[in-house]
Write a sequence for this structure.
């Protein structure tokens, strides 16, 4: 090959290689799903026409939701409605939320309004909800199936086994916020609880659960006075006046005798007439019934402190590379500072779970460099594998020292 052709070929190959290398290194414009697909359905409530759904971002930058949809299915698994996001939201932080509610929800929440408003009342009491780019094709970013009467296709794992109750409780994602798709299970990842929520700008609120009705006061009867018969006076005899008779000639006039005064009768109460054959029974005055007083029940209290799983030094969610560094220092036998958190490697009791060493973020039984690597994967937005019944990084947990 002539020298000139050889040099030209090498130059072209080098140029193409440089362009390919630059393309691989440069992030460039990300695909559409990369800015909204790390999202979980975090809250669902349907109480009559008071309904809401809340999404939670699994990592930073998931705020470009314009055009994505929520798809709703009835208890038979049939399409029953959808909601298309008309715009993006501003807050793109990890664990930022997006709140969508009905007009009745807006009216019931006196402290604010949702980020977006449903048209109608699409949330079923038994059914399935999916979050994706289109209801009839493409990948599903998250889904939850629920209800004792739901017979459609499952969401992840098995459906949550109860219908949404009509007492202002919400279906809440309680574990596995960052679980990959193949580790999600609607039956165990969700639970019913307080209908609380947070807007994208951080404004929080909740709807009160149905209050126990206060006992209806029993009216105090007013005693009826027994009528006292009116005394009947017996009329006083009227004395008869005596006139002197005519005086006969030669006879002496005789005075008429003075009439004896008849004593006046004393008035006495006449009892009401008694029917023949019946003995009157005295009537007891009614006793007023005591009005029951409602006793306030103190809300249950939980033991332990609330922390964020993976935030080893309690610097605030979400876990970050500093937590990864602390894990490596512990593994190397160096000192670590964990703030208000338990010491790295110290045994903690996880509420609703088994004891674990603090810092054992994948529940493998010990704190090691693998935990440090998984913290870095989480910070980079990559999937993380966990042991059975292990919280996900960034999940709120209640822990106590045994």
């Amino acid at each position: 090959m002539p020298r000139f052709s050889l040099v030209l070929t090498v130059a072209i190959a080098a140029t193409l290689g440089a362009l390919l290398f630059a393309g691989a290194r440069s992030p460039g414009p990300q695909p559409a799903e990369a800015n909204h697909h790390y999202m979980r359905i975090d809250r669902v409530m349907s109480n009559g026409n008071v309904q809401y759904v809340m999404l939670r971002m699994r990592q930073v930058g998931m705020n470009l939701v314009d055009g994505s949809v929520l798809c709703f299915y009835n208890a038979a698994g049939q399409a029953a409605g959808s909601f298309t996001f008309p715009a993006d939201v501003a807050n793109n932080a990890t664990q930022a939320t997006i709140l969508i509610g009905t007009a009745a929800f807006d009216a019931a929440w006196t402290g604010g309004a949702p980020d977006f408003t449903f048209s109608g009342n699409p949330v079923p009491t038994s059914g399935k909800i999916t979050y994706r780019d289109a209801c009839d094709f493409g990948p599903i970013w998250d889904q939850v199936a629920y209800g004792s009467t739901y017979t459609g296709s499952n969401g992840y794992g098995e459906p949550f086994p109860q219908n949404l109750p009509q007492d202002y409780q919400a279906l809440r994602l309680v574990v596995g916020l960052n679980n990959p798709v193949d580790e999600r299970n609607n039956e165990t990842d969700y639970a019913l609880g307080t209908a609380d929520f947070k807007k994208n700008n951080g404004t929080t609120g909740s709807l009160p659960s149905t209050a126990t009705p206060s006992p209806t006061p029993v009216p105090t009867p007013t005693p009826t006075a027994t009528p006292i018969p009116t005394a009947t006076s017996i009329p006083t005899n009227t004395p008869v006046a005596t006139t002197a008779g005519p005086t006969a000639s030669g006879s002496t006039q005789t005075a008429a005798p003075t009439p004896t005064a008849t004593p006046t009768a004393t008035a006495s109460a006449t009892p009401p007439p008694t029917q023949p054959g019946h003995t009157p029974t005295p009537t007891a005055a009614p006793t007023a019934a005591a009005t029951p007083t409602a006793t306030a029940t103190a809300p249950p209290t939980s033991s332990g402190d609330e922390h964020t799983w993976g935030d080893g030094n309690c610097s605030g969610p979400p876990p970050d590379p500093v937590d990864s560094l602390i894990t490596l220092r512990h593994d190397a036998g160096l000192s670590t500072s964990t703030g208000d958190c338990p010491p790295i490697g110290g045994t903690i009791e996880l509420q609703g779970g088994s004891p674990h060493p603090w810092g054992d973020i994948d529940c493998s039984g010990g704190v090691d460099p693998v935990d440090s690597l998984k913290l870095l994967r989480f910070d980079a937005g990559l999937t993380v594998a966990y042991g059975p019944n292990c919280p996900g990084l960034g999940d709120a947990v209640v822990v106590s020292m045994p």
